[in-house]
Amino acid sequence: MVEKIKREWFSNVRGDILAGIVVALALIPESIAFSIIAGVDPMVGLYASFCIAVTIAFVGGRPGMISGSTGAMSLLIIPLVKEQGLNYLLAATVLTGVIQMLFGIFKVAKLMKFIPRAVMIGFVNALAILIFMAQVPHFIGVSNMTYIFVAITLAIVYILPRFVKAVPSPLVAIVALTAVAIYTNFDLRTVGDLGVITKALPNFLIPNVPFTFETLAIVFPYSLALAIVGLLESLLTASIVDDMTSTESNKNKESRGQGIANIITGFFGGMAGCAMIGQSVINVKSGGRGRLSTLIAGLFLIFLIIVLGDLVVQIPMSVLVGIMIMVSIGTFEWSSFTYILKAPKNDVAVMLVTVIIVVVTHDLSKGVIAGVILSAIFFVSKISKIEVKKREEKTKMIFEVEGQLFFASVEEFVRSFDFSVENKDITINFLNAHIWDDSAVGAVDKVVIKYREKNNAVTIIGLDSSSKTIVDQLAIYNNVSSKSMSH
Question: E strands along 55-171, which residues?
């Protein structure tokens, strides 16, 4: 236990502290922007990022991952805020946390294994595109000096690490260029232009809503959607950070941790949040690896708001835009272009569909769900091919079945038989086949019954143990059961 604490908290103190500071600076404009999207005060998003980051540092399952208010969650709560107001949002946030905790307890995270690699690649690429697109309004058509500051930021973030590794280059860019902007008074858009920052700690409060079934009926659909989207985004982000750091994480613990963080956030005036891939990538690339980086990100965020609020509002947006552009470049899977040429067409289609849907809807969950469904359809189509070979020996007719017999292949299976024959000894051999479901048993029933109606003697052989079990349980015609057949 002591070794685990040392490894997760104190094995990379310097790197975690510096990375956490960089992340905190990057959290401010995004948290404010997501609050504006959701239609709430900027402090709701900032308080959410502070509470979630600090909480998840202790209870999350992925050290070094950053969680806070996100765009995907903000989009989901727009109707609730518009129709019911802030207190219902806070109640929905608490319920979201409860649902996510239940997901963790019941180990829903194991469903991650059903997300194919093509969907993961599409998810990452779509996220990189969305991160870039989110920066465009902050530097296109603002001023010529904005372009210059973005270019200088990109140069610092890209070139400086080649010569200086002691301090994260994004931190150098933020401090140096903010000082230049304050001293020169250039025409630049700043963090303060996004919204008003109130220099105050969040207060504990119980959402002011009636504790009735009517309230539950209002918030539950939103909470369920938030819980699913938040968990999906968090687990996918955890998998990406796992790959980046060559370490493993506890996905079920992460689910429970996200739930606890959202419950606490709801009671401290914040909106529901989840893992943030952009900030998580910044953290890892800035040297953050342990839980300390996540804790520092949350604590430094609130320090910036309360103590350095007057300076924070003067940070040029162009500097933060430059950093996020580098994040999007680093996030994008550039090997995807080779993947498109070399991978199976079905996988390429799944990847492209995931990217397109996420980019068009700005909803990561919709793209991932569509990708998984399309991948499942392709998989079913691929394995639903079944072949029935016929050979005759005097009065005996033998059919050898090869493939997987289930709902998608039963029609082809039935069509493979000639039901015009009479008075024959028919054997159907399932040695190279497997019967999976009720539809398959129904198809076997149908074939046997049709042949017996024409005075044919039917024998089924070669059933493996699980196929035999399902046939015994579900076969309808009393003489079709495999108990009365030769094997």
Answer: 67-68
